[in-house]
Amino acid sequence: MATVSGQQGFQATFQATPHFSHMDEQMRRCIQECLSCFSVCEQTLAHCLKKGGKHAAADHVKLLMDCAESCRMSAALLSRESVFHLHQCATCAEICKACEESCEEFAGDAQMKACADACRSCAEACSTMAAMA
Amino acid sequence: MATVSGQQGFQATFQATPHFSHMDEQMRRCIQECLSCFSVCEQTLAHCLKKGGKHAAADHVKLLMDCAESCRMSAALLSRESVFHLHQCATCAEICKACEESCEEFAGDAQMKACADACRSCAEACSTMAAMA
Amino acid sequence: MATVSGQQGFQATFQATPHFSHMDEQMRRCIQECLSCFSVCEQTLAHCLKKGGKHAAADHVKLLMDCAESCRMSAALLSRESVFHLHQCATCAEICKACEESCEEFAGDAQMKACADACRSCAEACSTMAAMA
Amino acid sequence: MATVSGQQGFQATFQATPHFSHMDEQMRRCIQECLSCFSVCEQTLAHCLKKGGKHAAADHVKLLMDCAESCRMSAALLSRESVFHLHQCATCAEICKACEESCEEFAGDAQMKACADACRSCAEACSTMAAMA
Fold this sequence. Notes:
The structure is a homotetramer.
Chain A: H1 2-15, H2 18-21, H3 25-51, H4 58-79, H5 85-104, H6 110-130
Helix pairs in contact in A: 3-4, 3-6, 4-5, 5-6
């Protein structure tokens, strides 16, 4: 299927990177979680702004923006193995947790559930990284 | 294996996003290419700075920085379905092509080859998107 | 006054940069316009989300996000004299113009007027830069 | 003079923002320090890559990249009054201090001195903000 082949392409590119292959599994997983959470938060931003009402509440939308921004900064620092990547992961875990909680308040909205899942999964990966400090 | 399960987790999160599921395959693939190319360019930045010499030439390193930055901006605009996403994809395709060419000049360096591949693949996905304008 | 001394500090830091001092006035002004427009758009995002209603319409908020993101990318590329800075300025001018028009539809809202002014001024500076290509 | 009028334009735009005018002086100064430090670090990146040698050492260049990225994230979160702005300022102060120390090792290089000054000034403003938590 097209979808699967598209994602195999993604994986193939990602795994083929020699510099990346020396990274331990934890770091690799954390980068992928951050990239995924970054994109999912941006998708959810569009969803929330379109829905309006409670979905577009300032505090909620700003959390989604903070989470997207923090995740992409974490992905960058992890990828280039910055000396501050553990520090940044600790901050990112906090922001992801807050965003997860905010998304969980929307019962019955599949997009919000998916975003909460992505935030929770990213928070776990970032916490695990940060605990290595 | 740990690697596979980590990536299945990534795919699962990414595919489970309802907002994302309505996107056509081309847009989905383009986001993934941009996310991958963003991370690979950051990894390659670390590789080039560590190697020094020709690898750390100002023009080459700045292209890697531009490409990483452009790819993450494209990923953001595509994910939130910004009205400027096609415009941004056109710019991103140009930057990725230039970065690919710069990376191809390093024969026998597996990291540079992987980065050239990621840039070429991302340039193609972005060009395909931009052509829809 | 505190405000003035704070801003003199900003100017002093900015002007004292030797690398920056060789830049021509046009480039210097363009960086400042991009930095200013980036911050003003982020401020306006907070304002619009707090106001809700028409202010928080998806298309309008997403334009503010695009404009903030584009301006900070332009500021980065201009500052490091990237080979793509003129290309990026051309894109940024387009986005700033669209954001200006969107902000101008809110008559009698001083924040929106200030944002429209910042976008117009930044669009002019970016267009002037891009015309040097 | 052109330079001065350019900067007066910047100040005028910045000060005229109604949303911004309610901010206290400390926050306003911190945003300006972050914007300035972001641009100065990007300028210094170009300078260091051009000089090569010790200037282009991986650890030093990556600190400049981290500092630029952290400062622009701080400027964004402060500008939109994110709930995480104090948290981000604490992280940013750490990164700025590390970057300042790294820049101070280059005696007799005016660009490095200007960058160290910008980092020190930004670290102070961010620390002051973070202490309000």
